[in-house]
Known about the structure:
Layout: H1 6-14, H2 26-34, E1 40-43, E2 51-56, E3 72-78, E4 98-100, E5 103-105, H3 109-129, E6 136-142, H4 153-162, E7 169-172, E8 184-186, E9 188-189, E10 191-200, E11 204-205, H5 215-226, E12 242-250, E13 256-257, E14 260-269, H6 275-289, E15 293-301, E16 304-305, H7 310-323, E17 328-330, H8 338-341, E18 347-350, E19 364-366, H9 367-387
Parallel strand pairs: 3-6, 3-7, 7-18, 8-17
Antiparallel strand pairs: 1-2, 2-6, 4-5, 5-19, 9-16, 10-14, 10-15, 11-13, 12-14
Helix pairs in contact: 1-3, 3-9, 5-6, 7-9
The chain binds zinc ion (ZN).
Zinc ion is lined by residues 78, 111-112, 145, 174.
Amino acid sequence: MMNQNTIEIAKNxxxxxxxxxxxxxxxxxxxxxxxxxxxxxxxxxxHDTKNLWAIKKGKDLSNNHDPNKHPVFLFAGHxxxxxxxxxxxxxxxxxxxxxxxxxxxxxxxxxxxGSLAAMISSTNRFINEYPDHAGDIAFLITSDEEGPFINGxxxxxxxxxxxxQPIDYALVxxxxxxxxxxxxxxxxxxxxxxxxxxxxxxxGHVAYPHLADNAIHTAAYFLEEITKIxxxxxxxxxxxxxxxxxxxxxGEAGNVIPGEIDIEFNFRFSTEFTANDLQNKMQxxxxxxxxxxxxxxxxxxxxxxxxxxxxxxxxSDAIKRVCGIETSKQxxxxxxxxxxxxxxxxxxxxxxxxxxxxxxxxxxxSTEDLNKLSDIYFQILKTLLVDRQ
Length: 389
Ligand SMILES: [Zn+2]
């Protein structure tokens, strides 16, 4: 536990080739780093996915959960990375972490092995300096965030809820920063809902339109209406709900009236809607325009927002203290595992390094930023588990 260097940990994680859903020994390594701090570990592996649940109890006397006196603070993250991409375009091998001009290069350096390293170093330092801290500190680390997210955080959270394991604060290490460390934190995320609509008409010869029913023409009226709708105006936390048509496939030959059209679309939606409301509303338009159709849905995530101030304030204050800037609280960007953790009722904040190079070749993170990130995480723990008690 002594003198753990955030950068050293980040390098050791990056050197493990953990292309999703492979963990490549990262979680075992994380266990070895946390074990002297009193954590109890449990692997909650499902199929090809490794999930590490770790918890370190505070010194509180009673076993009753009290979110004020005995909060449970969770660090959440993932050990998997996206594939390296075109190896020829990497200046250094993607799984040979290399520091140059203060930047650590390697796949996963920013998304999100750097954050994991900062979580571990800050936690060990915190427990060392404040062995009598209140509350519990937990880790939920998955190897399936970049993949189909079926056997990762979502399954662990289901199990935790079954066990009545409370989580009060969850800090997700996704790379939230935009231009400088800490300039953006995420306090929620939009929902994501994908739909596939097949409209059935009647195929025919273009010369005999009265014998056919052109599915493209039916689709045209439908598409015109749904692309003009203002679904909502958003609210103080979310931009307006957006519908994007992402794919249209129809047509067989130049002299054939198509009898079918496949339309794919995606909603990014605010808390003004539930997925169910959106599906019902869309069904009304489908019924209005299409006599014969099939509509399938996949819910990628409901929207969530952190309303209570404690974690957000602790994070903003820590950023101000370490980086000297005011952070901007946003809900933009794609989905994250925060959407699954939200089901526990936890306050959720996402804070990690600058995201400009994630999922790209020559992914990098500033070593100075990683050290600062560790300091920020440390301050957040101190605020919530020591100062507020
Ligand atoms: Zn990530």
